[in-house]
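Known limitations

Files may contain more than one protein. Parsers should not assume a single record per file. Below, a two-record file is shown to illustrate correct handling: read the sequence, read the token line, then continue until end of file.
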Amino acid sequence: MELKDLEDKKQVDILQAKIVSFLDEETIASGAKVQRAIIEDSSGQAILKIWNEQIGEFSEGDEIVIQKGYSYLFKDEMVVSSGKFGTLKKL
């Protein structure tokens, strides 16, 4: 799957991309921490959400793979996350 294939409110079986840059980090109402990053592949860019203990594990330029993740549109931006049951790993 490529970034151009992501759809609103859909499962992401497997996606490989590169981290371009990091955006904000915040603590949400539930107490969970989340950091946003811009990722890209040859088809485009999207926002990656990195959760809790995985914050700090990745660097700009890292190739990552998401398996069984989730994608959705938020403020006209495609967002992808490992979600509750998926995985996010560095290649």
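...continuing to the second record:
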Amino acid sequence: MSIYLRQRKHGKDNYFDLTNEEIYCSELIYFAYKDSYGKNIFNTTPMTFIDANTNETHIYWQKHFNLLGIPIPEGKKRYCTQ
């Protein structure tokens, strides 16, 4: 429940960053599920913003991260969970 309240307080994480106060949908799952020792049961995996059809960064993501003023975090392990 505290994770839900944290998300409601800070909003959606447009940066896909596990280290900030906002939470993206996969981050909510990552932080919510822990084993009996309190360790996260899901591993972080590199996130990709590459269009599978063109093998180039999708224009949506180019615009998205450009508006945020940050480089596209292609391949950064901290951004997504599976």
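Parsers that stop after the first record will miss the second one. For reference, the second record is described as follows. The helical segments are 2-10, 25-32, 59-68.
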